[in-house]
Amino acid sequence: MSVNGASQGIALVRLLGRKYCVMMKAKVIVMPKAAVLDPQGNAVRDAMRHLGMPEVRTVRIGKYMEIDIEGQNGDLESRLHDLCRDLLSNPVIEDYELQKMDGGIQKKTPNAQRPTRLPKITAREAGKTKLRTTKAKRESSQ
Question: Which pTM value belongs to this model?
């Protein structure tokens, strides 16, 4: 068998293997613990307030991962938890949440139901806003 034929055979075996094996999707959400400061979240919160969203109180920045898994094993969930604890998160400063989906359908919000975006602000407009707020702070402190 030629090298090209061997690679086609391997691809066929993989294709058939995927067709007949159980697929599962795991979703992992990693977030900083509540007691840990989140400077990246604070920077995003400040930028949101600066761009016209003074209602924003807190922002926490985390990580979101989707993992496709072939097969299903009895200890799969405990191995996934071990991976989340040892590799995907830092247990000292982060918590994780593991969500398994056994071929189920996840309901998604269609684009038509999402809220509309705020208008973009130019750098010049942002500079003027910052200048006005800085002047107002100076005047109020005197």
Answer: 0.57
Give per-residue pLDDT as tens, 35-88: 999 999 999 999 999 999 999 999 999 999 999 988 777 788 889 999 999 999
**Euclidean distance between CA atoms 29 and 95, whole angstroms:** 8
Q: What are phi and psi of 61, to 5 degrees?
A: -100, 130
Give the CA-trace dihedral at 40, 44, 45, 46, to 10 degrees: 100
Alpha-helix runs per DSSP H in 1-142 = 3-20, 39-50, 76-83, 123-141
Backbone dihedral angles phi then psi of residue 125, each to the nearest 5 degrees? -65, -40
Beta bridge partners of 27: 66, 99
Name the residue among 113, 137, 119 with its Cα closest to residue 53: 119
Please give the CATH topology (third level) of the domain spanning 21-105+118-137. Mth169; Chain: A , (3.30.1280)
The DSSP bridge pattern shows strands 63-70 and 94-101 to be unpaired
> Domain spans of the chain?
21-105+118-137
The CA–CA distances, whole Å, from 37 to 84, 89, 136, 139 equal 21, 16, 29, 31
